[in-house]
Automatic annotation (TrEMBL):
Protein name: Transport permease protein
Pfam families in alphabetical order: ABC2_membrane (PF01061)
Provenance organism: Arthrobacter gyeryongensis
Tagged with keyword Transmembrane helix: yes
Listed transmembrane segments: 35-51, 58-79, 99-128, 135-163, 169-187, 237-255
Length: 270
């Protein structure tokens, strides 16, 4: 991949230009979509269902989760469609097919950065004082979910060439993702319901990533008494993070293996 970095750079530029061609707001859509999501969830859950009453600084808690999950959903959704969207280019010239899903993940990362800047600004207004290890874990969590999205993007992107139902399957997965991770609610609610089966919930790398984002952005805005209301999940860094990284890397290798086998006949199938 490193040897093809120039081609990858060109594809990223192309993706950004194509996506915002004819758009008035352009890159500002990176702010509009998460802001609308935040307002809808905050009003529906924070105010109507009163979740903000038992969750201090619920607005920061909610936005931190939304920003993180949005990166994953955008990456996976676009990576799944990347081969079909570039069918004309694939038919005409040969270049490593893996570059297309990877380019879409990098474009999603470019959209993620403005949202992250807004999150940091909101946290600073709330008295955010993170430690160095918390900032480092943010980078680790971001890389982990990028690996996960790339692996799944390669897998479903290749399958989508042969089975167009793959895109619908991914759409259903993305519809569930926000609710399958502690974005809108506290993890302790899940633990109370699932009991000894809580470990199944924690096996989701996205769950671990969201919890780390909350630990890095939300926890430093709380007082000691408020942290007691929502303690950090046990063994988050010592056990669950390594497990999540291992699962993400395994999915990347699986996706890459399937992609290589199926990509041989992409041009014919397209």
């Amino acid at each position: 991949m490193y040897s093809n970095r120039f081609l990858l750079k060109l594809l990223v530029r192309k993706e950004i230009k194509v996506r915002y061609r004819g758009s008035v707001l352009g890159l500002l859509w990176s702010y509009v979509k998460p802001l609308m999501q935040f307002l809808i969830y905050f009003v529906a859950l924070g105010i109507f269902l009163n979740l903000q009453h038992g969750t201090p600084n619920y607005s920061i808690y909610l936005f931190a989760g939304i920003v993180f999950v949005n990166f994953f959903t955008e990456s996976l959704g676009n990576a799944t469609r990347s081969i079909l969207d570039n069918r004309d280019l694939i038919r005409k010239i040969y270049l490593p097919r893996e570059l297309f899903p990877v380019a879409t993940v990098l474009v999603s990362a470019a959209h993620f950065l403005p949202q992250l800047a807004v999150l940091v600004g909101a946290c600073l207004l709330a008295g955010w004082q993170p430690s160095l290890i918390q900032l480092l874990m943010v980078i680790v969590a971001f890389i982990m979910v990028a690996i996960l999205a790339t692996g799944l993007g390669l897998l479903f992107g290749a399958a989508n060439v042969y089975f167009r139902d793959s895109e619908n399957i991914v759409d259903m997965i993305l519809m569930v993702v926000t609710w399958a991770s502690p974005v809108l609610y506290i993890w302790t609610m899940v633990q109370r319901v699932m009991g000894p089966w809580y470990w199944v919930y924690q096996m989701n790398p996205l769950t671990v990533g969201v919890e780390i984002f909350h630990w890095a952005f939300w926890y430093p805005t709380l007082t000691a008494d408020q942290i007691g209301l929502a303690p950090l999940p046990p063994d988050l860094l010592g056990f669950w993070l390594p497990v999540a990284i291992a699962i993400s890397v395994a999915i990347l290798f699986l996706g890459q293996s399937v992609f290589r086998k199926l990509s041989i006949h992409f041009a014919q199938e397209l």
